[in-house]
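Researcher: Excuse me, tokens okay?
***
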Amino acid sequence: MKKTGLQDPARQALVIVFGATILYIFLTVRLGGISAVDIIYAMYFAASFQFEFISPNVRAIVFDIVVIMIGGTIFWLSFLGQFVLPVQSLDERKKVIQRLIGTLGVQPGPALFIRNGEIIEDPKKKNRKGAGVTILDTASAAVLHNQSSYTRAIGPGLVFTKKNEATARAIDLHTQVRRLGHKSPDEDPFAERGENESEEEFNFRQSRRLQTSGLTRDGVEVVPNITTVFRLISSKSEGSTQFGYNHDSVWQAVSYEAIVPEVSKEESRRNEAWDRLPVFVATDLWREYLRKFTLNQLFGFEDHEASVDDKGKSIPVIEFIIKKVNERLKNALFNEIDEVGLPTNRRISSLEFQKMRQRGIQIINAGISNLRFDSSIETMLISRWNAKWLDYAKGFQKTVKGRQSNAKLIGEISAQREFADNVSPILYDRIKDWQWGQTAKITLLESVESLIRGTLDGITLNPKLKTALEDEEAGLLDLIEWLHK
């Protein structure tokens, strides 16, 4: 709903005071304090600067009116101001009154609301230079500036801005996701300009291609999508918000923004936004690591001994590159590899991690996906896959059979151990009694009988075995009888 003039608290206060003044004058005239003639004469003498001829009653009433207007304006602005903004202290109420009075003057200040890092304001009031007020929700922060420099960082809540102080950059405190590369998996960055594609659309497509384009060691161009997930550094619930607000992180993120030289000072996009830095740095790392490997290594046509995960398990080269990019962005030290992707056995400082920390940014994850190639390269890759699919299938079959063999062996060992545990308790008790001198030395026949009886107990306690091994159970009982003959 559009706000009308009467909804402005300052104007509401003036309307009330003006109404009270008119009522006071009316009642004074009605009760005989002054007459209409006195008012006319007073206006005449005032216009001719003959103030000494003005009636004393009129002078007293003018004084009363001035007191009513000044005192009433201050009172009603104080009263209405505490309902306009969430103020608590006397100092905050004072600042609200000052800013409401300022809206009536020649230099009013801006009033903004920042929600999820987006500035919400009346375009007509955008260029106000007076002292103003800014309200930020729990997921927002900002950095203010004046005509010469940045002034301070502000977080969630109510903030009173000073004269000539404005918002330089609003920041969303949510976890951020930024992406570079082609728009969709169906977009071909290498395709010629289409019949229904305008020149502008074609140029934008080529621009997206160049954003993430990189070359392998053997000179093949690869164009992926690169995604980064990040947030400003803060501890949980810091700054009285669940999203975390850290003054230093917000200040560093904005105050260290790079300047785009080809953009004029008057344009708002002259500074490169802080939230674009992580994906740009991740892209540079992607290019650096890609040129250490050949296309055949990238797709597994050639083995690469260094492409292993943290547990030493072999992984595809593309996963190894993603691992190294994240290692550089998320750790102060990383394991260096040489120009052909082999480890140098050195741990060195990560300049990328230091740069992120300097800007108050914490990287959560970096991803590389949807690799695209020129159509001739894709055709060659498909041809190689078709030629090698049988080798891959046989290798996979061999792996499966090996796993089956291992599982069978493990199952047999486990079954033997379980069988031994089931049949040995009776024999174990007999041997223990003999060792303690409680029974005579156990004979071979008694040992065999104990094992047989242990087997019978195992069959009896397991209903499924008892049903399946009825004949075997009878045979074991016959064997016991034979031992006693």
The radius of gyration is 43 Å. DSSP finds 15 helices and 13 strands in the chain. The first helix runs from residue 9 to 30.
